[in-house]
């Protein structure tokens, strides 16, 4: 790139293509290339500040808050690019500045790369996003759903009955199931009726349905604490090897989880208890899926 080789000022017009690609890859660098370092560093800082402010407000915990964040960040990025191209086009007789050198640009790129490497936007705004790859929580959470997880859900309160959590198992895989048992609870599951500390839940028939070409019954399960959600149950029970549980006690700092697609879930009946330290967060909503009904679906209400 440009470099001053003598004491005489060097004039060189700005290249709009270079300004475009510098801004596209590293917001603010196009402005520095155009001789606007203050604006360039301001834009760069703004890209970091906006997610931080949204994280403080907690808006990304709701669909429209996350949508607003995406629109603002994307809009700002487009504006930065257009601004750099516009000003580059105007610089027909640009006088090179001391920082218009390849090594100054490289220093900015290195600093920006290091900053973005350590700037975890998911941690800043307090959420993570996943795509659901399987069916164990149908019909509530469906295969193909793009879901948002509140990573800070349990900083100020413990997990509760009915929460759909994401956790890491000892096999290194991430799973998502619904909590039905808290630490020190005594549990029984018989005929898909959950009993917690002697208090029995219930299920109520809703309708016949189909799951992957198999006839199922869609029911409403009410946990002993009153939390209600939907289940899929096979019309004709199959031998799953561990259909029921009897008089087990959840260890301290652990939880018992079950899938809403009860006959297809490799949940605590097979994987064991979930330790508190392995819980990564709570599923709060979906923002995309196989059809429009999966957009802005709040799992805290179902």
Automatic annotation (TrEMBL):
Family in the record? Belongs to the peptidase S26 family.
Alphabetical UniProt keywords = Hydrolase, Membrane, Protease, Transmembrane, Transmembrane helix
Q: What is its EC number?
A: 3.4.21.89
UniProt name for this protein: Signal peptidase I
Instruction: Please verify whether the record's keywords include Membrane.
Output: yes
The keyword Membrane belongs to this UniProt entry's keyword annotation: yes
Q: Which residues form a coiled coil?
A: none
Q: Name one Pfam family in it.
A: Peptidase_S26
Under PANTHER family, the record lists: CHLOROPLAST PROCESSING PEPTIDASE (PTHR43390:SF1), SIGNAL PEPTIDASE I (PTHR43390)
